[in-house]
Each structure stands twice: as structure tokens, then as C-alpha cells.
Amino acid sequence: MPDRFDLPAGFRWGAATAAYQIEGAVNEDGRGPSVWDTFAARPGAVRDGHTGAVACDHYHRYPEDIALMKGLGLDGYRFSVAWSRVQPTGAGAVNAAGLAFYDRLVDALLEAGITPLPTLFHWDLPQGLEDHGGWLNRDTAYRFAEYAGIVADRLGDRVPAWITLNEPFVHTVFGYALGTHAPGRTLMFEALPAAHHQLLAHGLAATVLHDRGLEAMLSNNLTPVEPATPSPADLAAAEAYDALHNRLFTDPVLLGRYPDLTALGVPDDIFGAVHPGDLDLIHTPGLDGLGLNFYNPTRVAAPTEPGLPFDLVDIPDVPHTAFGWPVVPDALRQLLLNLRESYGKALPPLTITENGCSVEESATPDQPRIDFMSAHLDALAQATAEGIDIRGYYTWSLLDNFEWAEGYHQRFGLVHVDFATQRRTPKASYAWYRDLIAAHRDCHS
Known about the structure:
Elements: E1 12-16, H1 19-22, H2 35-40, H3 58-72, E2 76-80, H4 83-86, H5 96-111, E3 115-121, H6 127-130, H7 139-155, E4 161-166, H8 168-177, H9 192-211, E5 215-221, E6 225-227, H10 232-255, H11 278-283, E7 289-293, E8 298-301, E9 311-313, H12 330-343, E10 350-354, H13 367-385, E11 390-396, E12 415-418, E13 423-426, H14 428-443
Parallel strand pairs: 1-2, 1-11, 2-3, 3-4, 4-5, 5-7, 6-8, 7-10, 10-11
Antiparallel strand pairs: 8-9, 12-13
Helix pairs in contact: 3-5, 7-9, 8-9, 12-13
């Protein structure tokens, strides 16, 4: 059985973060408000009223955080650019101070021997665009392409590869369908135009990046979907959920078409959002790599109440993270095999752009996180042995941070952050990951 040391010699080891979750400095140097600033200020929206106003203060402490990355021996660092730090309203004038921050960050990473992997959108849409409809407004896709060009023109001489969007599924469902994330809309399936406009934005931005000789990737949260039982009703429910969670966001990019969404009650034109030529704009640029954010598989049953075509049910008899997510490492291997079966030669090289778990602070010495990472890396090695092209692994996350609607209650970091003092303390998983990276390099030297 292959283990994590059998990953290929050129395998890229990394860690990931996101702007609103770590940067803080929300009112500094010309940054405009984002939907998460607005949402977090809404009473009851975020647990205990937490906000990202300070977060990890990475905006000021990034040299310390890069030193932690260098101490790990990372090859790459995935971060996101805050759109409203670059364009305060999401359009128009560029904020020079905001771009200068990312300039400094990229230079410091390269000086430390770490390759930057920026994500252009990680859920923090400028509030100025949300005021005009946000991702429900088709024009937002074109504003995103302009923003992509601005950032690429400034950093592209040093940054070869880019991720356009992070988890459009999660942003659409939690932000526009269920309202548990910013911007807090509760449109159910009528939120799906936001999904289409994000994919259109990806296609337009990928063209912008390719025109500049840069590589374009897309990262989504993907999950293998299993029926609760072999019954026809549960099988149909699982197929419907797979179409919504996975294929809605991969079929258009890789195959140039949407999956059949009729089981969800969604018309082919996604409530009028799909215009002639849109799928060409989404599909034609092509992907230089597909980023996978993987946390857990999903078990689905036939609905017990009207209104949805499926019920999500727990997976029993497996460990669960502090967030309550089931831990099934081999599901990652199965997901990768499923992607190859579904897309064949259309599937580009893969990178795990997020994988990690929330662990209670009392879990000493951080063994659940070490076990989680170890088992998932073994699953990756098994998939590699079965012929899957996997280029790298970015653990989530480098730092404990603002975990969206959970505020500061879920800790995913390799490094503990005391949010009162901003003191960083590497956990046992930090040392384990550092030693693993060094041992892997020794094996291939």
C-alpha cells in the first residue's frame, strides 16, 4: 500500500489562507467594505458577533507569517486577494495602497523561496457590487474580469499561476440560497444564477490571464456522493445532489455544458441566466489545473419533507471533526477516481488546494489533525499509484482564523493564534508537517 512518501518528487507542499479570514485592517489604506464586513455587522449573523475586522492582523504581521511558512519548508502558499482592497467599490479606480500590499507580500514570499498561488475571489465581494445585485447581476462577471487584469498586470511578472474562484458551490448555496454566509440571501434554487455568473466570471478571467501568458485554475469544494441505501429513491436523490454540488461547477468548465438539473426543478437556462455563447466563454479558455477542496464525503437520502429533492444524512461509525464533519480519508481517493471516470482526457492536472480539519483546543497534542492529514495524504498517494495526476497539497490552514459564520470558534490552523494578543504558537501538527516535507524531499534527493 503506497503511503505519503510515495508522492512524486516534484510534488508541491503548501498551506492556504483567505484574505477576510486573516488580513484584518478592514478600514486601512483605502480598502472598501466587502459583503462580509456588512454581514458580520448584522446582529446574530456570526456566532458571538465576531468579525474579521482584526482577524490574524496578517496585513501588518505578514513577515512573521512568512517566517512560519519558511520554517515549514513550504513550496507554495495559497492566499486570496481582497477585491475591495484593490478596487474599493469593485469597479473603477484602483487603490494603489491595496495593490502595494500584495506586491510586498509576493516579493517576501519569493525571497523566502515560496511560490505564491493567489486566488482572485474567496467570497469577499465588494459591497458596492452587492448593492447592484452581486453575483445575481451578470455585470459582476465583467467587473471581475477587469479586476483580474488589474491584479495580473501588477503581479503577473512574478506569479505564473492563478486561481480565479474559490468554492463557487459553497458561496452560492450558503451565501445566496440559505443565507448562512454573506451576503445572506435566502433564495433557495433561485440562487443558481449566482452560480452561472461566477462561472462566467471564471471564463472571462481565465481568458484575461491566458492573454498575459499566465495559467488559470478553478478551485471548488467537491465531494463523493453516496446514497444512504440502494433504494431507487435514495439513488435518485444522490444523483440530484451530485449534479448540484459537483457537476454544476465542473461540467461547464471541462465539458462545455451543464448537467441535467430537471430533478432540482431548474430549467436549462438556469432561470434565464444562461445567454447564447456563455458556455463557450466558460469552457473555451480551458483549465491549466483543477483545484480540489476536500473535507468529507456526503451521504444522501430521499427527501422526507417537500421542497427539496434530497436529505443530507450523517455517516455513522466514523470519527468526526470538531465541526461535526465525518472523517473518511479514502473518500478522497474515490473522488479522484470518480473525476477521472467522469471527465477522462478533459481532466487537467489536479491540486488539493484545501484539506484540513477543525480540532478542539483541548485536543493535545493536536493528534486528531495529524491523523487527519496523514490519512488523507496516504489516500492521495494511493490515487497517484492508480494513475491520477496530482501536483500538490495545500493544507487548510496555516493559521487559526476567522471561520466565517462560526467566528473564531473553529480552529483549522497548524499555528495557534491568540486573538487577544496575536501571538502565534506552532502546534504539534506544524512540526509533523515540517518533518514530513523534509522527509519527502530526502526520499527524492
